[in-house]
Amino acid sequence: LYEKSLEYADDDPSVYNNIASIYKMMKKWDLAKSYYKKALKVNPDYRITYLRLAMLYAVTNQKSLAIDNFNSYVQDDPSIRIQVINSLRSEVANDNKDAAVGAKELLSFIK
Fold first, then answer.
1. Spatial distance between the Cα atoms of 111 and 95, rounded to a whole number of angstroms
2. Could you report how far apart the first and last alpha carbons of the chain are, in Å?
3. What is the DSSP string of 36-70?
4. pLDDT at 92
5. pLDDT digit string (tens) for 41-98?
6. Phi-psi region of 87 (alpha: psi -120 to 50; beta: other; left: phi over 0)
7. How far is Cα 14 from Cα 8, in angstroms, rounded to an integer?
8. Do the Cβ atoms of 24 and 52 come closer than 8 Å?
């Protein structure tokens, strides 16, 4: 259904992000990564994609790429960094399976 929506909104990075997130939940890492990258190609300033890519790279044990994308998301802003870390901790603590895919791993990389 989401892929069909690309026929009407191929310039909307949120559509690519949503498709990628579905693939990530299905543990189809390569497909998820390709859609996240398409989202960034459409709009490199769509920053949430960097966080989602960081989590994907973390769950696939690609530490350097996870950290690079996390840093692209927080852009050296300490307040955003703290907010994101707290949010990731909350997702892990609440065992939010869909949202937390990669959160625990990313936290271990960025401490």
1. 20
2. 38
3. HHHHHHH-TT-THHHHHHHHHHHHTT-HHHHHHHH
4. 84
5. 999 999 999 999 999 999 999 999 999 999 999 987 888 999 999 988 888 888 766 6
6. alpha
7. 13
8. yes
Contact (Cβ atoms closer than 8 angstroms) between residue 2 and residue 22? yes
Residue 97 vs residues 63, 93, 102, 104: alpha-carbon distances, Å: 21, 10, 10, 11
pLDDT of residue 21 exceeding 70: yes
* Nearest alpha-carbon partner for 33 in 17, 13, 14, 15: 17
More confident residue, 100 or 72: 72
Could you tell me which residues come within 8 angstroms of residue 47 by beta carbon, excluding any fewer than 6 positions away?
Answer: 72, 73, 75
Interior angle at CA 106, CA 100 and CA 107, nearest 5: 90
